[in-house]
Design a protein that fits this description.
Blueprint lengths: L15 H4 L14 H8 L5 E5 L5 H14 L7 E5 L2 H14 L7 E4 H12 L10 E2 L2 H14 L25 H14 L3 H8 L7 H18 L1 E2 L1 H13 L3 H7 L4 E4 L7 H10 L5 E5 L14 H4 L1 H4 L4 E5 L7 H12 L20 E5 L2 H18 L7 E5 L6 H9 L4 E4 L8 H14 L4 H8 L7 H13 L14 H18 L7 H19 L4 H14 L5 H10 L5 H7 L8 E5 H4 L4 E6 L16 H15 L2 E10 L22 H4 L3 E5 L5 E5 L11 H5 L13
Parallel strand pairs: 1-7, 1-8, 2-3, 2-6, 4-5, 6-7, 9-14, 9-15, 10-12, 10-13, 11-12, 13-14
Antiparallel strand pairs: 15-16
Helix pairs in contact: 2-3, 3-4, 5-10, 6-7, 6-9, 10-12, 15-27, 16-17, 18-19, 18-22, 19-20, 22-23
The chain binds a DNA duplex through helix 5, helix 10, helix 20 and helix 26.
Length: 717
Amino acid sequence: MASLPPDGLHLRTLRPRDLAPAPDRAPEGPALNAAQAAAAAHGDGPLLIVAGAGSGKTRTLVHRVAALVDRGVAPERILLLTFTRRAAQEMLDRAERLAGAARRVHGGTFHGIAHRILRRFGPAAGLPRDFSIMDASDAADLMGIARTALGYGEPTRRRGADEEPTGPARRFPRAETCLTLYSRQVNTDRPVYDLLEEGWPHFAEWAGDLEQLFVDYVRRKTDANLLDYDDLLLSLALLLEQGGDVGDRIRAEYDHVLVDEYQDTNPLQARILRALCPHGRLTVVGDDAQSIYAFRGATIHNIMQFPAQFADTTIITLEQNYRSSAPILHTSNTLISRATIRYTKQLWTDRTDGELPWLVTVRDEREQTRFIVDRLLELHETEGVPLREIAVLVRAGYLSADLEVELANRRIPYEKWGGLKFLEAAHIKDVLAFLRLLENPQDEVSWFRLLRLLPGVGDRTARTAIETLAAHAWQPLALTGLRVSTRAAAGLTALGALLEGLRTAPRAAVPSEEIQLVRRFYDRVLMETYDDPQPRLADLDQLTVIASGYATRTELLAALALEPPAATQDLAVGADDEDTDALIISTVHSAKGREWDAVFVPWTVDGVYPMARSANQDEAVEEERRLLYVAMTRARHHLCLVHPLQSFPTRMSADYSYGQLSRFLDDGVRRTMQRVTLGPDGSLSAAPLAPLPPRPPVDLRALLRGRVGLPAPDDPR
DNA sequence: GCTATGCCGTTTTTT
DNA sequence: ACGGCATAGC
């Protein structure tokens, strides 16, 4: 195959700020410590590097790549894998920076690499050549279609009339939940019933029905030539495991495989590595204390069992922290030492400098926002910390909403990582659905999406139309003869004509031109649907610009599914302002592996750390603790946890004791910090280490009913 | 029967 | 500002 879909990572242009070494980070070049050097120089056997936060793990990995190249391994025969795109970017950037020779190292996310391999080797193993990739919401749509088709769409009761009439209706799980379960099953290879018992006991009785549903979902995927994210991994595993020469040919591509953030991989990914590296030339790096992806099947067992799975594994532990000041490290160590799981290492530093981390008590969300903005401007303006060296890390994307409004009002530039993706916007998905249909006429998900745009067409008519299309070899013109309401008929005819016109258009239309043609139809839909269509139209302009960077539709669609651009907002400014200094707002998950001079962690309250939904499962609570640990260990010099006493955003679910400081910040942890309180005029006063008095949980329901008052806003201590 | 509309309660984290 | 759900309307 002449042109592989671009990996994105290789083609990404480096921006100047990526190249500038961060202030007082050890330079990439000289002086690895003894453990790091041993890891870099390690020979061919399996290698497990257990590396704590800030211990130079990526740097070690990058040096190992360089060492391999020095030993004569061809760069393109080295494969660097990681789970998240951001980590993959960081890794490849630094490999490039360190050694020109490493420029052609292959690397990316597990999904990205699996995709590349499947396109290249799949057809020889009988996989379809022109599959499309569904993102999570496409997959949920398809699951919804299957769910309705099997009759689970109605607000239904459990079969059998013997249920007590007063009991609540036994709802079948929502499509998204079904997909989560399906995905968990694929990634962990565990029975549905067990997964239900652990995470969704109230759905346990549906286990058999869910399995049926999954069978139908898989059949629909196959029929429509669609692969979801899990299929990318699963197909690769099967390709590698099945006899025959395809697996051998894939294995023959790479001499060494290196995996970063190994604690974030799940059993399916471990299976891929076993099948890919029977020779054992495999290096994995991870930190069990930073495992924060259990919700998608990741497990630290992958690290723990690595030595058992690969004979003669060498284990190297990196425990010296080069990132954080001593007080920040002390607080972080204390926090993680409370974990019920004993982690494998203890981080230390030879630094002695630094201010104690702040624990700031504020009245409410408004005051939290004001404090963060004031303090970060102070750091920026009086201490000269670049905005880009300051991060606000949140547990969930929506928790920064108030802050973002304030930043916008005060004209402080910021960049948000995580949160709503450009591609998840409905109008973008609509336009792409047209392109996907041109690519793959049997794509049931895209048909469903487009049909429902038409006036007078709802679920029912759409489904009828799809049946007709299936019976007519997916010819768009088959939409014309349908017996439906007159209103619907007009739309169906127009849609059929449009798609037929595009399909038979004079050859060589490039994707951006196709989008323009689609927009002649779709812009009108947009203008009729929304009060203010302008921002959405602007998004479509932006999509056209992106599309013009791709020569073929196949490349565009694959790149968008696996390398989605960040938030809409981001794109709008991203194109022309590479040097803009901007504050970073990020989810903790997206901040993994990064570091900043100053880190703010708002919402350090119970209900956020841990999230209310996790609070009754021990393992989930432990993961939440690690999450806070990850957030704290991102900081070099300034760490500031903020604790609003009153925080009752209406969006949060009831029954939780908001305003209570996070249970993870117990007396011992607080003694390693300084308490800072905010005066009425915004002035700060620091008070050392007094433990908080116990505070009874607030009954939110009673509060909302007006039966009790809020706790006094001032903490007496 | 099917679609459009208005109201309610709800938001984890990523590929 | 979004999805699910009930109800009104074709």
